[in-house]
Each structure stands twice: as structure tokens, then as C-alpha cells.
Amino acid sequence: MPEAVSRPNVRRMLTEKPALRDRIERAKAQNSSGGTIFDVEHERVRNVVLKLARGHCAYELNEPRREEPDSVMVLPYSALTTAQVDHFEAVPGGPISVWPEVGSRAFQRLIIADDAYHMGWLTVQHGRYRFLVQSEGSTISASFSAAIYPARSSGGKQTVARQFR
């Protein structure tokens, strides 16, 4: 399996950690149309998503959030309906009614033009990871799209998540 992975660091990790490789192989299956699917460990995925969302809230907005969120949603991008994709891609809340804290990353992103920042979304690695964090009153939302298995030829968007407070 490691030889089929295009990313060198991931390939190395799978080569060096046979237990991880075996765990992934055990989770692998085929769907009715012959495509590869994985039986994910939902609680572990939720924990990773929650850590990412909390990190983005703290770093971008200077708003640490340790309490349990109102909701966490994790879905394969390909499983979303057109309406769900439109909702996910839309910037929540429309135009900014309250500006972020002066000096925060979110404030800097509002006033500095950057190719990585588009319509509220910040692209960290094109085709692999992007996120959007927005604060509207006491509600903070963190959304991100991550390519979990970029070696597959599915266009990169694999997992989406949104957290609301």
C-alpha cells in the first residue's frame, strides 16, 4: 500500500508504522460500484475536527473555545447534495457586521490582499486544505475542507466540517 501513495511523508509513515498501515487496511472495503471506501473511526475523526476548529478559532479570531460546540458535522464532500454544497461554500452571516479584534489574524486578513484568501476561505494547501472562521456576535463558526486521500483522483475535496457555537 505505501508504494501507491504519492505524498512522500505519508508513504514514509506507512512504511515505518506497520500497525497504522494494518489499521487502514482493515478499515478498507469496496462499495457496490467497486469504489474504495473506509470504515472510519467516527469519534477519532470528530476529535481531530474539533481540535482543528478550536485551533482556528483561537489563532484566527483570538477566541479560545474549550466548551463543547453546539454541533459538529463531518461528511465526505461527494455525499453532499447541491443545496448542502451551496450552504457549506457560502460565507455564514453575509457581510461583516462586527469587525474582528484589532491585531487578530482575522482583522489582518480583512485589510491585506492575499491570493490564499478568497471569499472568507483561506487556502493553506491548494487542493488539500482550506478553512473559514467567522464570528458573528456570540456565534463562531469554523468550516474546513480537507483532502484526506489526495492520491485518489476525485478532485481533492474529501471531508468537510462545520462547527457552530
Fold and architecture overview:
The chain has 165 residues and is of the alpha+beta class. Helices cover 33% and strands 25% of the residues. It is built from 5 helices and 8 strands, in the order H-H-E-E-H-E-H-H-E-E-E-E-E. The protein has helices at 8-16, 18-27, 42-61, 82-89, 105-111; strands at residues 28-30, 36-38, 71-76, 117-118, 121-125, 129-136, 139-146, 159-164. The strands form 2 sheets. It has a 6-stranded antiparallel β-sheet, covered by helices on one side. Strands 1-2 form a two-stranded antiparallel ribbon. A hairpin with a 3-residue loop joins strand 5 and strand 6. The protein is elongated and about 50 Å long. The N and C termini lie far apart (40 Å). The relative contact order is 0.16. The model is unreliable at 149-165 (pLDDT under 50).
Largest β-sheet summary = 6 strands, antiparallel
| Structural class category | alpha+beta
Roughly what fraction of the amino acids lie in strands?
15-25%
Q: What order do the SSEs take from the amino end to the carboxyl end, as H and E?
A: HHEEHEHHEEEEE
User: Gap between N and C termini, in Å?
Assistant: 40 Å
Poorly predicted regions = 149-165
What is the approximate shape? Answer: elongated
Mean pLDDT, to the nearest integer, reads 75
How many strand units? 8
Helix content: 25-40%
Strand order of the largest sheet: 3-8-7-6-5-4
Question: Given the structure, what is the number of helices?
Answer: 5
In short:
The protein has 165 residues and is an alpha+beta fold. It has 5 helices and 8 strands.
